[in-house]
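> tool_call: predict_assembly(chains=two)
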Amino acid sequence: MKKITYFFFVPFLLAGCSGNEKTIEVYDAFEGAEKRVEVREVLDRNDDIYSGTAIFVDNELLVAVQAKPWLDYKKEKIEKELTKQFEEQFSDLNVLVSADYKLYWEANKLKNEKDQKRVADGVEKLKGLVKEET
Amino acid sequence: MEQEQYKNLEQQVTPPTPYFMNALKAFLVGGIICTIGHAITYFYIIFFDFTEKTVGNPTVSTMIFLSMLLTGFGLYKKLGQYAGAGSAVPVTGFGNAVISAAIEHRTEGVVLGVGGNIFKLAGSVILFGVASAFFVALIKLILVSIGVVQW
């Protein structure tokens, strides 16, 4: 019985150890390669996050990041820092940076979307969700 | 028999309390309950329009609802006997406290029995929860007004 328990539990516990690579993805409706590289660089430089997805559409820049598990309490600080950096770099865009899982999940869904209108609508909806307090 | 003698005898006969095992059981079961809570959190985030900021309310109500069902079926009692504080401290323990009091007094009628006793155990949780929330909010309001912190 004990052996069976170990058999099931050890892989379960070790599953958390895999996948330490940083994944950064950028969706760009305008194919602006320069911007894409700049966003990637900023996210790459930040040591507090392990994953990030950026979406450029219309006048909006949505950056959804995930803080490293032990740095969850620093989320707001990470958001503030990144917002400041992106606003300086892309002063012509409305920047929204969020470390919320909902935005990260939806952004990853949107980045595979082909229809640009749908992406724009999705970003607009997420901006509304962020403001929601209750 | 002297009081002292009785005390010694009693101590010899009583089996030692397994503090470590109790703590371990509470840790494991409490952890499992919290993991289920987290799974529900992700369920609401992924399938509904909730963000991390707003997902707390539906998660808590779902967990309380589940523990109320388990209490009604008599399963939470068994969990409580095994895990102790591990099942009482998470918010599921609150649901258990409400429903178990209602079940206990249901023979006394709906109004005076169930209605009068349903919050017998959980009432103090609600009272002190609301009162402390009020005072914490008051302190924060004062700190924000002075300019020490922001909302």
